[in-house]
Amino acid sequence: MTDTLLATRPTRQRRATPGGLTPAGLTTLLIGAALAPIDFMVVNVALPTIDRDLHASTATLELIVAGYGISYALLLVLGGRLGDAFGRRRLFLTGLAAFTLTSLVCGLAPNVQTLIAARIAQGAAGALMLPQVLATIQATTTGTRRARAIGRFGATSGIASLIGQVGGGLLLAANVANTGWRPIFLINVPIGLTALLLAVRTVPATRSDRPARADLAGTVLLAVGVAALLVPLTEGRALGWPGWLLALFAVAPFAAVAFFLVERRIERSGRVPLLPPSLLRLAGVRGGLLAAVPFFVGFGGFMFVYALAMQQGLGLGPLGAGLAISPLAVSFFVFSMLSPRLIGRFGRRSLPFGVAVQGLGIALMIPVALFGWSHRAPLLLIVPLVIAGAGQAVGALTIFRVVLSDVPADRAGAGSGILTTTQQTALALGTALLGSLYATVAGSGSGSGSGAGAGGAAGDGAAHGMAAVLAVQLAACVLIAALGRRLPQPR
């Protein structure tokens, strides 16, 4: 039975509406898709205010961010499988309702312990909701309609980062009714309730025609493996890398191997595992995920380091740092909308083309970091950021198209789950690895005491740290371009 999935192509889907996904239904799904990344980004700019209000330690502040991200990444594949089995609209509604409720609890949290618990639950709710977006698109659209829908999904991801950083800074600056950081969560409540009402009427009901039994062993092993990787990466620096954290990190590869072996055994027995290994034998899935890892490692690391460099090296506040990255986010949004035509015309060549454009933008940023690091740097970086954002949009959407075009419709939830899990894990890995590189180079640079730049020695360190991260990301672009040449044509 190892080739059962490979032999299965898109099958009949149960839909609430014969016309499939309408523009109103897609818009409703994209609202849900935006809420999860917005809430991840918005907390970063609010941490100092939360610290002053709730008197949290550094490690506790890290947990407010990491608790959300870890539970989110842990449950994405499971959320996709549950949607396949019980209905994608049902899981979308469940996740959206839970996200709205946990946002209310976050906004009303009386202490930091309640806030951390609510953030973990909020991440889990997001993991139930998000896979249903791509899975519903996969199950209800084809051809150019699917291409446009995935393009809008990518555009939503790009603009969500901007909304999270800039919108969060605006809400904090407004200090509505002297409530400090709480509106960044409470604003989700009316948005979530509105989306719930719309979803009931506009989102088509789809599910797999072959719902599978629960894969408890695979679920546990995947959770252990992802947690063993992400907990050390997100909490290691804050806790000073204690021995137990290093031991947990060492568990990750063993859990990954055990997960693969268990999933292969389940599939060979004729049952459906949590993540069918035969998915990875599909050329588009395997090649697309391989390209996705360095792509999103670089993207996650860049977004994290850029915000740090703007604040530590140039003295910008949270709102200023958010505005400084806005040229990239706006460019990403615009070119995500244009990408379907480019991908339709150039196919798999769109990925090497996209990362080449992205690499050009990154290359133009390096001399600004090394020789133009002053209060004018945000202005000098506008054009490179626009170029990089355009290339990132084309590259990201090509990866999404390649992976999803090979996934059978009755396994759309599992396919979108593995894609989003790979994306989120790579983003966390990039933040940890490139963030550590930045901290190391910036620390040594700040000790030189040359005094040039916007912030003296600290400004020099931030500039050198950012240049080092940009150099690594430029090398990653070369690797991704080479991998892109081997991908199958997206459909």
UniProtKB/TrEMBL annotation:
Protein's membrane topology: Multi-pass membrane protein
Chain spans, region Disordered: 1-20
UniProt KW tRNA processing keyword: no
Pfam assignment, any one: MFS_1
SUPFAM superfamilies xrefs: MFS general substrate transporter
Major subcellular site: membrane
Domain of life (superkingdom): Bacteria
Record-linked InterPro entries: MFS, MFS_dom, MFS_trans_sf
Major facilitator superfamily (MFS) profile domain ranges (all copies): 25-491
Subcellular location as annotated: Cell membrane
PROSITE patterns membership: MFS (PS50850)
Name of the protein in question: MFS transporter
Keywords for this protein: Membrane, Transmembrane, Transmembrane helix
GO molecular function, one term: transmembrane transporter activity
Organism of derivation: Actinocatenispora thailandica
